Structures are given as C-alpha cells and as structure tokens.
C-alpha cells in the first residue's frame, strides 16, 4: 500500500514534455494517453496468472499464462480523467468503465459531485481511478469514498501529477489505497494549482484553454 512514483526514464521524459507552456492539445492528449498506458502497466504488476494449454502454431499443445479472472472497472473522473481512459483500455481491454463527474469550486477548492455511474458487482472488482491531477486531493478522496459506499474494496489510483499536500490527505483518509503517479511535484500555489505542474489539465485535454 502507499504511493508509487514511477522512476522509468520513459515516464520521466514524457512528463517533462507535458510541462511545456505552449504544448498543443494534440501533443498533450498523446502524452497523457502514453503515460496512462505506462501507469496501467505498473499498477497491474501483481495481477495473478494461471496456466492454460492451447494449440500452438505447429499443432502441438503449448502452456500459456493468462490473467486469472480479474474483474476490473476503470473510473475516469470527468472531465480530465477521460484523457487517460483510452490509454488504460489499450492495456486492459476487457475492463468495464464507471464514470464519476466532479468539478472543483475554484474559490473554495471543494469538489462538487455531479455524476455517479458505476458498473455492477463493485464488491468483486478492482477499481482503477483515473485523473491526471491530484492537487488538494479533494476530488480523489471523494471518489474513493463513493466507490467504497457502493461496495468496492480494492481501489488503485492512476495520476499523472500529484502534490504532496493532496497525497497526504488521500493516504490519511484511505490508507488501503495504492496511488501510482508519474511525478510528485513541489507544492500547490495559492489557487490550488500544482507547481511546477501541468496547468489546467481538463482545459488542455478538451481544448478549452
Ligand atoms: O485534487 P483537487 O484539488 O480536487 O483537484 C484536482 C481536480 O481538479 C481538476 O478537475 P476540475 O474540477 O478542474 O474539472 P475538469 O476536469 O472538468 O476540468 C482535475 O482534473 C482534478 O479532478
Ligand atoms: O494543477 C492543477 C490543479 C487542479 N486541476 C488542474 O487541472 N491542475
Ligand atoms: Mg479543470
């Protein structure tokens, strides 16, 4: 359990490219999707395997390994989490998708929930929550609480950038949840934005900046 900051050179390189002030919407989306794939790869590293026998290319039996009955729901937090969804589904194509909508009040920094749409059998599923930005941690804390209220017991978070303040808040409230993050940044500014951060990830992904 805990916080896992990815140290792989590809991750460090790609997150650096995302920090460029005048990055295009296209490039930002591409990098968000690429990093989402790498975060998913890391977050699924302990999935159990089982051996199955299939017929190989020459007609002989071959033992192969496959992931053992893992039921996954991917949970993008609207809007910005959508920017990571396709990348994660590239890696886990059979996952079901739940959606939560939260908007942060830019004055109070409180997260307001406007949508909750969960798939069934949450008690049997591992949930992978997607949000590029974990700032004060209010949106993530609320999303984890929603999942738990609906019966989910195995929860992991995938984020591109997190602030130490937000990580402390989420790990204190939900110590049972693992957080996979491409970069832990320095701090929050007076408006709740992460420094050095990426700016407004939702605006950059949706082209509304
Ligand atoms: O950790 P927090 O302080 O809660 O802030 C992080 C949240 O803020 C942003 O969403 P925003 O509310 O701006 O919505 P958007 O994705 O629709 O732009 C971001 O995508 C996170 O969801
Ligand atoms: O730095 C931040 C904080 C919240 N939301 C963002 O998009 N960026
Ligand atoms: Mg936003």
TrEMBL record:
Residues at which 5-phospho-alpha-D-ribose 1-diphosphate binds: 79, 104, 131-139, 200
Domain of life of the native organism: Bacteria
EC number(s) from the headed UniProt entry: 2.4.2.9
Keyword Ion transport among record annotations: no
Residue ranges annotated for the Phosphoribosyltransferase domain, each copy included: 7-208
Cofactor: Mg(2+)
Binding-site residues, uracil: 194, 199-201
Class in the EC hierarchy, top level: transferase
SUPFAM superfamilies in alphabetical order: PRTase-like (SSF53271)
Molecular function, one GO term: GTP binding
A single BP term in Gene Ontology: UMP salvage
Pfam families linked: UPRTase
Keywords, sorted A to Z: Allosteric enzyme, Glycosyltransferase, GTP-binding, Magnesium, Nucleotide-binding, Transferase
Means of activity regulation: Allosterically activated by GTP.
Reaction equations catalysed: UMP + diphosphate = 5-phospho-alpha-D-ribose 1-diphosphate + uracil
Keyword Phosphoprotein: no
Known function: Catalyzes the conversion of uracil and 5-phospho-alpha-D-ribose 1-diphosphate (PRPP) to UMP and diphosphate.
Family: Belongs to the UPRTase family.
Protein name, entry field: Uracil phosphoribosyltransferase
Annotated organism of origin: Geobacter soli
Gene designation: upp
């Amino acid at each position: 359990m805990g916080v896992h900051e990815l140290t792989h050179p590809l991750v460090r390189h790609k997150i650096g490219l995302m920090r460029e002030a005048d990055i295009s919407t296209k490039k930002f989306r591409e990098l968000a999707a690429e990093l989402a794939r790498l975060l998913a790869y890391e977050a699924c590293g302990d999935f159990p395997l089982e051996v199955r026998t299939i017929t190989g290319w020459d007609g002989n039996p071959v033992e192969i390994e496959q992931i053992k009955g893992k039921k996954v729901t991917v949970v993008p937090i609207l809007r910005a989490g959508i920017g990571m969804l396709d990348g994660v589904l590239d890696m886990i194509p059979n996952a079901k998708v739940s959606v939560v909508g939260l908007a942060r009040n830019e004055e109070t920094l409180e997260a307001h929930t406007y949508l909750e749409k969960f798939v069934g059998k949450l008690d049997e599923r591992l949930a992978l929550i997607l949000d590029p930005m974990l700032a004060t941690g209010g949106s993530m804390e609320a999303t984890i609480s929603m999942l738990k209220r609906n019966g989910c017991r195995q929860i992991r978070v995938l984020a591109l950038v997190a602030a130490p303040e937000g990580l402390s808040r989420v790990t204190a409230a939900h110590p049972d949840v693992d957080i996979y993050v491409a970069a832990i940044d320095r701090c929050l500014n007076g408006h709740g934005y992460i420094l050095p951060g990426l700016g407004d990830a939702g605006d950059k992904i949706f082209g509304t900046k």
